[in-house]
Structures are given as structure tokens and as C-alpha cells.
Amino acid sequence: MKDELRIGRELLYLTREEVMKTGFTEEDILGLTRDALVAHGTKDYEMPAKIGVHPYKEVFFHAMPAYVPAKEAVGMKWIECYPQNPERFGLPQTTGLLVLNDVASGCPVAVMDATWITSMRTPAVTVLAAEALHPRPEAFGMFGCGVQGIEHCKFVVHRLKNLKKIYIHDIREAAMDRLIREVQPLIDVEIVKGKSPEAVTKSCQVLSSATVILLDPLAVVKDEWVSKGQTLLPCDLNTFWDPVTSSRADKYIVDSAEEHRLFADMGYFPDGLPEIACETGEVVAGTAKGRESAEELIVCSNIGMAVCDVVVGRAVLDRALEMKMGRKLPL
Predict the structure, then answer these.
(1) Contact, 279 vs 35, CB < 8 A?
(2) Exposure of 304 by Cβ count < 10 A (0-12 exposed, 13-18 middle, 19+ buried)?
(3) CA 239, CA 276: separation in Å to the nearest integer?
(4) Within a 10 A sphere around the Cβ of 262, how many other Cβ atoms?
(5) pTM of the predicted structure, to 2 decimals
(6) Which of 150, 132, 303, 305 is nearest to 206 (CA)?
(7) In sequence order, what are the residues at sequence separation of 6 or more whose Cβ sits closer than 8 angstroms to the Cβ of residue 199?
(8) Predicted local distance difference test score (pLDDT) of residue 60
(9) What are the chain's domains?
(10) CA–CA separation, 249 and 311 (whole Å)
(11) How are beta strands 60-68 and 10-14 bridged, if at all?
(12) What is the DSSP string of 189-220?
């Protein structure tokens, strides 16, 4: 990096389009995300729980710093979630920036769009967790057909090789149609519009959700629809599923126990945070047990960790410098 950038005198700025043009494939992102999860699972990282501010009740801004020594990756993502943005302003629910620093000197070396990185590393975590916890399902269910739902359906076929069908559901018919139109030509697994949340839940062994994150649970999926032996992988904290399901699960696994406890302190688990069995990275790294029997009901909640962002971001920065992309800005 020192040969391409005058550290301490300039930084590289990358737009969303430029980040995407670095050309990382889904397999690339899965590999980088796995490295980040293993680092987290083996405690080779530094990452305080997210801190944030909340201008409105259902809105948050989060500062997400992390350091992963094995990747020489250090930085912070500044990201927000405005659930009403699409309807009110025609804007994405989530936007943000990633700042990366030079480990040796501490100087900032890059500022880049974080939206694409977030949209890639999030499904990668879900899919890597699914592979570790439930590697041979024949049906995968996806609730929420926005950006995250689309990417989950693209990513899942890379690791769950026995899939025969992907069931999707969204309250917006147009979102389901768009997902099928965009993803079906790219994968060999049939995508089916689910008739209802209940029908999707009862049709799949592994399910994920990427909807909205709200203080009060919506409990769209009722506990009585969920069976032993299923694996649930919510990306939307405690919102979409009946909280009873997480509490009665044989294992409640989370990406970051510290961050889930912080969210609980903020009121996102009004019925209490379920007892945490272990962390996702520990399962992926093999330092904690995942599924131990076919009958176990497992809930694995992944709300996003900065270790994944800085590892992917560092790889994006290195490739952008090699490709001579972006704009160098003076410090």
C-alpha cells in the first residue's frame, strides 16, 4: 500500500460503484467473511460493541470500529438505519461509510461507501452459519425480498449444495417478483413465492429474515409454526420471529454476545435476552459446538460485526489501489 498511497498525506476515496467494480465474487466475499468470523471465534480481534445515537424512536446511527491483526485491517463503519426511507424519500433504508487506517502509523488511508460491503458480508455470515449448523437442507426460506433478501438467495447456493427450492416471502408482491427476476437466471435452484409466512416456515429446514429492526417485536412468524430440527438465522434482531421461539430454542447463538446484550439494554428484547449458547464465529472456527442432534431447534442471530466490514474493506482497498481506481484526496 505504501507504494500506491502517500500515507499521512492523502487517502483514497471510493464510491459505491467503484467498490463494486473491484470485482469481488460471492465466493471471494464468503472466504473473506469466514476469515473474519474465525478471527472473532478464536478471539484474535478487537471490537467494542456498537455505540450509537437515535434521532427518532425507530432509527439508529452506529459507530462500528474493529481491528483484525491477521488481515492488518483496522477501521470503523458509520452506518444508519431509517426503516421509513424507502417509503418517505425513495432512499435506501441503510447507508454508510467505512474509514480504514494504516495499522503502523494510524493515519487514515481510505474512505469508501459501506452499503455494498454491508449487503455482501451480511448474507455471507448467514450462509456460513447455515453451512456450519445445517449443511444439507433441501429447502431454504427467505423473509424480506429487498437488497438483503436478493443477496441471500444468490449466496446460499454456494454453500447449501443439497437445496432443491428457495421459498421467499415479502409483504410487497413487486419485491418478490423483482427478486425472482434478478436471481433466478443466476442459480439452478428453483425460487418459489411462498403463499404465507406460515407456509414458508413449515416448508423449510433453514430460514432467514432480513426485514426491519424495531423495538417492539412484530412476531410475524408464530412460535407454533416452528418445529424441532429447524435452523433460524434472523438478520433483524428480535423483530420478525415470535420471541418465544428464541427463548425455547435448544441453542440460541449470536454473532456478538456483547452487542446483543447492548441491544437488550436499549430495549430491543422486551421479554429478555435469551440465554446465549455461543457465538457464530466460534461455531465456524470449531471452538464451540453447533448442531449436536437432528432434533435441535437452533436460532442463530447475526446483526452484523465490524470485523467483517474491515476485513472485506481492506481487501477492497488493496484491489482498488492495484486497479488504480478511486480518487486520492489530500489530508
Answers:
(1) no
(2) buried
(3) 18
(4) 16
(5) 0.95
(6) 132
(7) 167
(8) 85
(9) 10-117+307-330 (3.30.1780.10), 123-304 (3.40.50.720)
(10) 31
(11) unpaired
(12) SEEEE-SSHHHHHHH-SEEEE-----SS----
Regions of the chain short of the pLDDT cut 50? none
DSSP, residue by residue, 243-292: HHHHHHSSEEEES-HHHHHHHHHTTS-TT-PPPP-EEHHHHHHTSS----
Is 25 in a helix, a strand, or coil?
Answer: coil
| β-strand pairing of 10-14 with 327-330 | antiparallel
Size of the chain, expressed as the number of residues it contains: 331
Q: Are 223 and 245 in contact (CB under 8 A)?
A: yes
Q: Report residue 226: phi and psi, to 5°.
A: -95, 135
Integer Cα distance of 241 and 257 in angstroms? 19
pLDDT tens for 115-174 read 999 999 999 999 999 999 999 999 999 999 999 999 999 999 999 999 999 999 999 999
Q: Are strands 251-254 and 206-209 parallel, antiparallel or unpaired?
A: unpaired
Calpha distance 46→171 (Å, rounded): 39
Query: How confident is the model over 50-79, as pLDDT tens digits?
Result: 888 989 877 889 999 999 999 999 999 999
CA dist 221 and 244 (Å) reads 11
Distances (CA, A) of 278 to 72, 115, 211, 305: 26, 28, 24, 15
Alpha helices in the chain (DSSP H): 16-21, 26-41, 85-89, 115-133, 147-156, 173-183, 197-203, 243-248, 257-265, 280-285, 306-322
Grid cell in block for residue 86: 424507502
Whole-angstrom distance, CA of residue 19 vs CA of residue 13: 10
- Amino acid, single-letter form, for residue 120: M
